[in-house]
Design a protein that fits this description.
With 281 residues, this protein is α/β, with parallel strands linked by helices. Strand 6, helix 6 and strand 7 form a beta-alpha-beta unit. The longest helix has 19 residues.
Length: 281
């Protein structure tokens, strides 16, 4: 029997002391390593995600944007490294996740209102507590459609709205959003953007958003995390602190235009850069 050992794991290395992030850090990532088919996607990757901010993740195709938040959220195992939330493990942290494919994210055998309530039931909340929290979310999102219908009976925008409500129901410390607008029309995208901003302004929940749309990534973010080609590193972290709520008028403001241009320049530099390692053909 032959055993294939990842290049990173051939020799046991001495344990490196964990380095905490600067004050205000919520998610601390140290030495994150992930291989696919023997080739590194992330290798000795360090990152600090600030608390109470929206961080957009943007980069070239194949750089592992969704993989990054999936590893942080515990949906994909890592090969090595450490991820802490305010110094706690994932098991001791309450998170929410909004999937790109809302059609597969919702339980089709449950009514929409029961989908939204599902994480609260897992927490053992009483019926009165569940009803009160669902009513709060309905009011916050100004829901006009019938939540007693099944997900497949509703439009895509309605399903994604319900999916976001479900992710927010337990009051997560961190909310992950994987391209949540990609399957929505423009009108629904504007609505969800507005509602996410309202939730953020009310709760200060730390959010990580993966987007393939640069305008969207800049518009929603306090920080834009720009990634390189694989093996993926941080190309730049761009701070963008225009006041909220941001509106369509924001798109025409000089600060927004400058932030978008700088992000685009960095992105194009990475796209043109020849990959430093390619799998053998």
């Amino acid at each position: 029997m032959s055993v294939v050992i990842s290049p990173k794991l051939k020799h046991e290395e001495p344990e490196v002391p964990f380095r905490p992030g600067p004050p205000g850090t919520h998610i601390t990532i140290r030495g994150l390593t992930k291989y696919f088919a023997g080739w590194p996607l992330y290798e000795d990757f360090d990152l600090d995600i600030p608390k109470g901010k929206i961080v957009s993740v943007f980069g070239p195709n194949g750089c592992g944007k969704s993989t990054l938040i999936n590893m942080i959220a515990g949906l994909i195992p890592i090969d090595s490294g450490q991820i802490l939330f305010d110094g706690k493990s994932l098991a001791d942290t309450k998170i929410g996740y909004v999937f790109q494919n809302y059609r597969e994210a919702m339980f089709p055998w449950l009514r929409t209102i029961d989908n939204i309530a599902y994480p609260l039931k897992l927490e053992g909340k009483s019926k009165a507590e569940i009803n009160r929290r669902v009513e709060e979310l309905v009011a916050s999102f100004d829901v006009k459609f019938d939540l007693n219908r099944y997900p497949y009976e509703m439009s895509g925008g309605q399903q994604q709205t319900a999916s976001i409500m479900r992710a927010l129901a337990p009051g997560p410390e961190v909310l992950f959003l994987d391209e949540p607008f990609s399957a929505l029309d423009f009108e629904m995208t504007l609505f969800i953007r507005e509602k996410l901003q309202e939730v953020f302004m009310q709760t200060g929940t730390t959010m990580m958003l993966v987007s393939h749309d640069l305008e969207e990534a800049v518009y929603l973010a306090d920080e834009i995390l720009l990634l390189t080609k694989r093996p993926t590193k941080v190309a730049h972290i761009l701070h963008y602190d225009d006041a909220r709520p941001r509106t369509v008028e924001t798109l025409m403001q000089p600060r927004f235009i400058d932030a978008k241009k700088m992000s685009l320049d960095i992105f194009q530099t990475e796209v043109r850069r020849e990959a430093t390692a390619q799998p053998p053909r």
